[in-house]
Amino acid sequence: MPVTGPALSASRTQPPRMFFLAYIVALVVGVIIGMFGGGGSLLVVAIIYLAQTARPIGVSTAYISILVGITSLVGLLPRIKQQQVHWRTVLALGIPVTLGMVIVRAWLIDLVPDVICQFGTYQLSKKTLVLLIVAALLLLSFSTITGLIGQNIRSKAHWEKERPTAYFSLLLMFGLLIGMGPAFSGAGGGVLIIPLLVVLFGIEMKTVVGTSLAIVTLKSFVGFFVGDVPRLQKLNIPIEWNFLFGYAAVMAIGVLLGSWLVQKFDNDKLKRWFGWFLLALAIFIVVNELLISPRLINISD
């Protein structure tokens, strides 16, 4: 008898128009990752809202993780050739980021119940919590990269040579926090890595993009194969490799296009565009989860 897991259920019930839109979003996400080195959080919208109806949130976020990793790798390769990767920062920030990712994906994600609490007729689900965490991270990143907060933060770029112990200790501390926060959604964390490296460590935007892509590639692959794959196997949930390969191919095309487009714009424009994109995405998630989705549930009841 053929397997009828969440994947097949989703593909049979998903309206073709919405599924097609999910692939359009995948292409856009690829372009954004290729241009900015982050933005995988938009994939949360594509996978959770558009490309599924029956997948558990733990499965959807696992897919987001590896898809972000594959597309980040595609965007990273040309930047290695262009020497736009700060490798010492990749190691110092990437190792704790990856550790935080594995802790969440292998252990913490399944400790959160499907329904966390209820306020009257409103239920706070694991899915909503994950998305609200994403929105909070997006708003924090927007505020930092656009200068709403952190304007008085003095760049610590000179610390790498003058105070290397303090410099790399900061990277280790922030890395663990960045690894754990976005890991609940499967997002790569580029929306936090980028403002951290630009504002606090004073690294040029184009080098930050390559560095962020390298870190996100590392954490996504390790988080998926060390954390998610054993967890899904333990739960007897099959992995939809055909879906992943097809989606990754579309995103990879977008990454290559974004990597070409980024050469046409200066650093200041890139930062502004990236910031406003983050704000728009955060507003969409908050409005949908707190206002639109609860109303739809009440109407259906």
Could you characterize what this model shows?
It is a single chain. The chain is mainly α. The chain has one domain. It is built from twelve helices and two strands; from the N terminus they run αααααββααααααα. The chain has helices at residues 6-13, 16-36, 41-50, 57-81, 87-106, 126-145, 159-162, 164-180, 190-200, 205-234, 241-261, 267-300, and strands spanning 115-119, 122-125. Strands 1-2 form a two-stranded antiparallel sheet. A hairpin with a 2-residue loop joins β1 (115-119) and β2. α3 (41-50) packs antiparallel against α4 (57-81). The longest helix is centred in the last third of the chain and has 34 residues, at 267-300. It is globular.
Features:
single chain; 301 residues; mainly alpha; 73% helix; globular; disordered N terminus
**Strand tally, please?**
2
Query: Quick one: biggest sheet?
Result: 2 strands, antiparallel
In spatial order, strands of the major sheet run 1-2
Average pLDDT number: 76
Structural class by helix and strand composition: mainly alpha
- Number of discrete helical segments: 12
Query: Approximately how much beta-strand content do the residues carry?
Result: under 5%
Distance between the termini: 34 Å
Structural domain count: 1
Shape: globular
Percentage of helical residues? over 70%
- Unreliable runs, pLDDT <50, ≥5 residues? 1-13, 295-301
Q: What is the H-and-E element order?
A: HHHHHEEHHHHHHH
User: Rg to the nearest angstrom?
Assistant: 19 Å
